[in-house]
Design a protein that fits this description.
- The structure is a single chain.
- The chain is an alpha/beta fold.
- The chain folds into two domains: 181 residues, 3-Layer(aba) Sandwich (Rossmann fold); 143 residues, N-(1-d-carboxylethyl)-l-norvaline Dehydrogenase, domain 2 (Orthogonal Bundle).
- An eight-stranded mixed beta sheet has the order 3-2-1-4-5-6-7-8, sandwiched between helices.
- Helix 15 packs antiparallel against helix 16.
- The radius of gyration is 19 Å and the shape is globular.
């Protein structure tokens, strides 16, 4: 087994989260190469020492930033995939020939691919070897990038089918300020990280409409019920959604001011159009692209997800935010738990 101090890491995706994880590994003494799809981001970091996706955080010269995939991946024992979910297929397809046969690949992207309705582990499996996928892990949980780089205590979860692999990844990322738990449920951890973004859009909408804590609490709780229903149908363990990748990430993303998805929802609730909101956002709000995928997944498997359905209708311009809330409240009475 590779010791943490002997590890070389490649981080594919230089957005705020990829940069935060690269900095975390770098501070542990791991040699890190951070790859950016955008050459202009590389040039800006070299010129200013700051990544525009993570403003106010200095990037040390010893953290190597590049826009060349083969260079980033050379000699890497750990390959961290952190590209936006809809671009993961393209990035990994190009990266795969340069990934060492012995590398451990970890996904930290949160989303569902629209074209195929696939989780990120399913996307990576198209291009990586069965041996890579046996060691594959996913890192998820309640973790705003800005707070991680400030050293605020954070707890996340790493899921993998191999006990050895997830324990190894746990040791690579664990610090006194970044606590990593393990879980064998890859499907549940993947889905928890993706689906919470859709509910966070809804949480923003009700905030933008001016509703208070009663509404937020109801939305988060019933959102978790929807996530769990779909997750269990797709093969996840129900208890995973009570943990960090489920309830933990859901609460953070629905209530935290740093949440991009909540921000988009808030602005929708205040009457702005989706196009206007997205036009002045540089970072990706994954929930906007994940919503149609989750809506389609629910329909394919016959899973009732009324909150997701209303968020989808709002994004498609079929329903106003106020009308969507009223439709949710006037649905036929149900028991609290149903399959």
């Amino acid at each position: 087994m590779t010791k943490p101090e002997e590890t070389r890491a490649a981080v594919l995706g230089a957005g705020s989260w990829g940069t935060a994880l690269a900095l975390l590994l770098h501070e542990k003494g791991v040699p890190v190469r951070l790859w950016s799809f955008e050459g202009e981001v590389v040039e800006e970091v070299r010129r200013t020492g700051v990544n525009p996706y993570l403003e106010g955080v200095p990037i040390p010269d010893s953290l190597h930033l590049t826009d060349q995939l083969p260079q980033a991946l050379e000699g890497a024992d750990l390959v961290l995939s952190v590209s936006p979910a809809q671009h993961v297929d393209t990035v990994i397809r190009k990266a795969a020939p340069a990934i060492s046969p012995h590398a451990t690949v970890v996904s930290a992207s949160k989303g569902i691919e629209i074209a195929s309705l696939s989780r990120m582990d399913e996307v990576l499996a198209r291009h990586l070897s069965p041996e890579h996928m046996e060691r594959f892990c996913v890192l998820s949980g309640p973790s705003f990038a800005a707070e991680v780089v400030r050293g605020e205590p954070t707890a996340v979860v790493v899921a993998g089918r191999s006990l050895e692999a997830r324990t190894r990844v746990q040791s690579w990322f664990s610090t006194s300020r970044f606590r990593v738990y393990t879980n064998p449920d890859v499907i549940g951890v993947e889905l928890g990280g993706a689906l919470k973004n859709v509910v966070a859009l809804a949480a923003g909408v009700v905030s933008g409409l001016g509703f208070g804590y009663n509404t937020q609490a109801a939305l988060i709780t019933r959102g978790l019920a929807e996530i769990t229903r779909l997750g269990v149908t797709l093969g996840a363990e129900a208890r995973t959604f009570s943990g960090l990748a489920g309830m933990g990430d859901l609460v953070l993303t629905c209530t935290g001011e740093l949440s991009r998805n909540r921000t988009v929802g808030t602005r929708l609730g205040q009457g702005e159009t989706l196009n206007a909101i997205l036009s002045d956002m540089r970072a990706v709000a994954e929930g906007v692209r994940t919503t149609p995928a989750v809506h389609a997944l629910a329909a394919r498997h016959g899973v009732e997800m009324p909150i997701v359905a209303e968020v989808h209708a709002i994004l498609e311009g079929e329903r106003s935010p106020a009308a969507a809330v009223e439709r949710l409240m006037l649905r036929d009475p149900k028991p609290e738990a149903w399959s």
